[in-house]
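chain below, 197 aa
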Amino acid sequence: MEKRATNIRRLILAAALAATLLAVAWLEENDADIEETVQPVLPTRSAASSARTKKSAPGLLQVEQLGQRKFSADADDIFAATSWEPKRPLTGSAQSPFGSGQDGRTAPPPVVTSPPPPPPPAAPPLQFKYVGRLTEGKIIRVFLSMAEKNYIAKVGERIEANYRVDRIKDDVIEFTYLPLGVKQTLLITNNNPGKFQ
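prediction:
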């Protein structure tokens, strides 16, 4: 069945390619028949008005009017490495290298704070869409879709080695995201009530 669908798909693509090539060949023949006529544009203004027009023409860039770029000595180094860490205060006139300020008092030691711990890893949101269910005796299978892929799963089965179906109820499907062991639920609403018996 799948091989037949693949062959049909190939035939459709081959027919579309042939139709495209025929259309291109037909357009090239028609384009050769069309002659373009170009008429020269005659000037209607005097030479003085055309000189003013050249200076203020919207398509021309007047480089002389741009001016020179001025650089400031206070500007940052554009080639310096950038970092998210705050800049450290410079040691200078306010503090001597011996630890005391200009007024003779010793400077307090800098406060060192450790960065906050990173947040714990979280499971990505569920991307499954509920399509329907099939009940065979006591075994319930659910039909799910994700990223144009379809899945059929029952309790205890894994989906793509990342999710395991833990429980199937009438209104909820419970999953476990296996890399982190996080439980997730998919609500079944009236918008997707598919049910097969």
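The CA atoms of residues 85 and 114 lie 12 Å apart. The helical segments are 2-33, 47-55.
thats it, cya
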